[in-house]
Structure formats: C-alpha cells, structure tokens
Amino acid sequence: MRIILASASPRRREILANAGYEFEIRPGCIEESYTASDPRDIVREISEKKAFSVEGELLSEREYRESGFLLISADTIVVIDGQILGKPRDEEDAYRMLLALQGREHRVITGVTLILRRNEDGSPERESLYLPQERDRSSIGAGAIQDSCIPVTSLDASGRKALSHKPQLEEENIPSQRICPMKGELHVLCRSFAEETRVEFYPLSQEEIREYISTGEPMDKAGSYAIQGRFAKHVKAIHGDYNNVVGLPISRLYREIREMTSNY
C-alpha cells in the first residue's frame, strides 16, 4: 500500500523520512477556512480538509484505486492568549507575533488526519503497509512532488464554508475514527487527532526580533519562527514533542498508524 504525504512542507517531509517511511508527496491547495472555535478542533478540521481534497484527486487515478493508500495530512498553529498565530502576512506581522511570544510560554498544536483506503477489490493489503524498521532507508522519501489544488467550497445552512463529509470529532486527546461505506466493496477508515506542545521563549529585544526577521526564516512558519532553525537559541523550554513544533508529531503518528492498521 502506498503512503501519501499531503503536504509540501520540507520539514514534514524530513521528519517522516527520518522515521524510516517511504512515501510520495501530493500537496493539497485549499482555502484554510474553518467553522470550529477550539484550536484543537480547528487544526483537525483544516487537516481533514487537506486530506479529503487530495483523496478526491487520488481516487480519480486508477493506479491509486487499485493499490489502495494511506494518506497523511497535517496543519500546525501557534496559540497565545487565545489568539491563533498562523504564517505571517509580512514582516510587520511577523514582528507583532514575535513581540507577543517573547519571554512567554505558548501552545503549538498540530492536527493530523489519516485516511486508510482499501484497494479496488476490497483487499487491505496490510503486508505492504510497512513499519519504518522493516524497509531499506536508501529509498526513503522517493517520488516526485505533485501539485494538487482542489478548493473545498461547500456551505453549511448558514452560508458559511463547511467541511465536506467531515467525520465526527470526539473529546480532546481522543482521535476520531470512522468507517465509511463506499462504492462496491471499498471501505475507508479515517482518523484525526491533535497533538499539543508548550514552548517558552527567553525575552527578546526589539533589535533581536528585527535581526531574526531580516533572515527571512520566519516568513513561512506558523508563529513566525523555526524552532529547528536560527531561532533555536531563543527557546528556553519545550514541554512535549519537539517534532510537533516543527510540524509533525511523529511519535504519536507512528502509534496512530500502528493502531489504525492492526485490525484493518
């Protein structure tokens, strides 16, 4: 069974490859709107939106219907004082974010969605869904990056943008799971979860913030910083999964995949 990473993020690609997975990259281009209010539900909703967008494109190609696949998508946000910090619009926006974060603790939340789909004849092909240690690392991350841009624009009763065929989410820290009957013998298992890490920064001067922004590093990062990059020297403490802050909670992901496939 093929593993598909629905993300163009080089950081997520590196984390997944370093864990020993062989996968293809198929990023989804969507409008990141949401209807949820809780930050944990927001990242789940957006990650689901990305996953369903890419899933729809994969199902239009016979080779993916025949092989079956495991699709992985993710979305990361930074939260402080109840405010969600995504990627900065410009340098002034990055400055505003870093000024708010410096000298304080904040939350980094990553939502992950997994879609496990049987092949066309209904067989799960579990023997091909390997665990990392079972494969040769020489071919990790192989496969060309393919662009995918399918906006999801369905509306709910109030006219707001809504998530198409969204699974029911359960309580915090409990991944949602569903089995969806599809055409013929096809079935799909979908699960989403949110992982949270708390990060504390040392105090920064305005000059230090401006100097960091001038490197260009924060401009495509949630919260306007890269914990794995030049900003690492300003991080005082991390409580939780470091990789979650980078963009993909690989320890939790591994266990979710193992549990998801154990009885499939």
Nutshell version of this structure?
The protein has 264 residues and is an alpha+beta fold. The protein is built from seven helices and eight strands; from the N terminus they run βαβααββαβββαβαα.
Give the SSE map.
Elements: E1 2-5, H1 10-18, E2 24-25, H2 39-58, H3 62-67, E3 69-80, E4 83-85, H4 91-101, E5 105-117, E6 176-181, E7 187-201, H5 206-213, E8 235-239, H6 242-246, H7 250-262
Helix pairs in contact: 4-5
Can you walk me through this structure?
The chain is 27% helix and 23% strand. The chain is an alpha+beta fold. About 24% of the residues have low confidence. 35% of the residues are buried. It is elongated. The protein has seven helices and eight strands, in the order E-H-E-H-H-E-E-H-E-E-E-H-E-H-H. Strand 1, helix 1 and strand 2 form a beta-alpha-beta unit. The chain has one domain: Maf protein. Strands 1, 2, 3, 4, 5, 6, 7 and 8 form an eight-stranded mixed sheet that branches. Helix 4 crosses helix 5.
Please write the CATH class name: Alpha Beta
Strand content: 15-25%
Give the termini distance in whole angstroms. Answer: 13 Å
Largest sheet: 8 strands, mixed
From the 3D structure, determine the CATH topology: Maf protein
How many beta-strand elements? 8
SSE string, helices as H and strands as E: EHEHHEEHEEEHEHH
CATH architecture: Alpha-Beta Complex
Number of structural units classed as domains: 1
Rg computed from alpha carbons, rounded to a whole number of angstroms:
19 Å
Question: Assembly state here?
Answer: single chain
Helix residue percentage: 25-40%
> Number of helix segments?
7
Which spans have pLDDT < 50 for at least 5 consecutive residues?
124-186
Structural class: alpha+beta
Morphology: elongated
Provide mean pLDDT, rounded.
79
